[in-house]
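Weekly sync, protein design subgroup
Attendees: M.S., D.O., the rotation student, P.L. (late)

Item 1: inverse folding check
M.S. brought a backbone from last month's batch and wanted to see whether the design step gives back something sensible before we order anything. D.O. pointed out we never logged the input encoding, so this time it goes straight into the notes. Structure tokens as presented (353 positions):
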């Protein structure tokens, strides 16, 4: 039995999802196709797959029908209907051959069920229009095989009978590496540039970060200042704590979480700074992001609400004191005027007598 053109078909499918016209976006961009196949037993296999441009989902694979569902409105117009039919047919052929090969290998090598196989294939396009392709195979969440495109060979990540069997199946298709290299040397660049043109608005989308600063007290001797930043896009961001206007250097007192996704394709993270209560310093969280341009988002902490209330009360007290002083001066002036008028009347009556 001839082994399926497993990764080749994956990559072809991945690239056929792309089309359009030349884009002038600058930077390094990566497209990836992710496939996860769960083999429950010899007769039941469930496969899921998605295609990504950077972190933007282009489409997904229906696990029941193996049809492609587009996640972005600008993906389907990239190719004429006839080409999508070709891709659809090629995908279904690949899925049948892939499942047959893996099931046959599991029987021969007595692989226990259930097990999970994962594939990641893709292409990275650099600003100078050179490209790099990659393909990896995983087994039960562990590295399994990787493609060495320069030598057109598959490299074992774990030396097992099953890994050697799968590598031999892929390697028996002798022109696999050569075909993939030809495809990616030309097709990756052209297809990526086309896709970048169609998806330019999505790739250039910018969402402003929203930052909130608050405190936690895990013990009477420790205060945790938390800067939570959310709703920003794209992903790269800089979050730092300032102490008296100076950036706090990395250390055990500073802990920043990984960048995590939100459901609306924005991101969030938290930065926590441990300080001693009432240490006498002022603190602020500084956020820098592409959407802010050259500006920075600065959110101070230092019992800011209490300081605001204290400031308002001080202002009110000062205004009250000023008003009381003016009223006192006015009363004294009126009293003084009354005394003068009384003395003047008494003087006049005295003269008349």
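Designed sequence read out in the meeting:
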């Amino acid at each position: 039995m001839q082994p399926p053109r497993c990764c080749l078909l994956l990559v072809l499918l991945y690239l056929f999802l792309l089309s359009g016209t030349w884009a002038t976006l600058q930077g390094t961009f990566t497209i990836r196709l992710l496939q996860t196949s769960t083999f429950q037993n010899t007769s039941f296999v469930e496969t899921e797959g998605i295609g990504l441009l950077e972190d933007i989902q282009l489409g997904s694979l229906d696990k029941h029908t193996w049809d492609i569902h587009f996640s972005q409105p600008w993906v389907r117009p990239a190719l004429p209907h006839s080409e999508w039919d070709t891709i659809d047919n090629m995908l279904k052929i690949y899925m049948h051959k892939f499942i047959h090969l893996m099931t046959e290998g599991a029987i021969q090598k007595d692989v226990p069920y259930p097990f999970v196989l994962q594939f990641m294939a893709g292409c990275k396009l650099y600003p100078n229009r050179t490209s790099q392709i990659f393909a990896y195979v995983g087994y039960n969440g562990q590295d399994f095989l990787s493609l060495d495109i320069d030598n057109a060979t598959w490299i074992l990540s774990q030396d097992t009978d099953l890994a050697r069997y799968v590598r031999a199946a892929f390697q028996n298709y002798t022109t696999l590496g050569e075909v993939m290299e030809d495809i990616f040397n030309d097709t990756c660049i052209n297809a990526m540039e086309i896709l970048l043109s169609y998806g330019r608005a999505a790739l250039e989308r910018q969402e402003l970060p929203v930052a909130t600063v608050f405190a936690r007290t895990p013990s009477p001797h420790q205060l945790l200042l938390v800067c939570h930043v959310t709703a920003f896009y794209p992903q790269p961001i800089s979050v730092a704590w300032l102490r008296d206007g100076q950036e706090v250097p990395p250390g055990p007192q500073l802990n920043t979480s990984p960048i995590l996704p939100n459901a609306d394709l924005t991101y969030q993270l938290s930065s926590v700074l441990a300080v001693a209560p009432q240490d006498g310093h002022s603190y602020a969280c500084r956020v820098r992001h592409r959407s802010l341009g050259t500006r920075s988002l600065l959110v101070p902490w230092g019992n800011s609400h209490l300081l605001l209330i204290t400031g308002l009360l001080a202002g009110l007290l000062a205004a009250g004191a000023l008003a009381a002083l003016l009223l006192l001066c006015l009363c004294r002036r009126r009293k003084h005027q009354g005394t003068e008028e009384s003395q003047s009347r008494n003087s006049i009556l005295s003269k008349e007598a």
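Discussion: The radius of gyration is 35 Å. The mean pLDDT is 79.
Action: P.L. to compare against the previous round before Friday.
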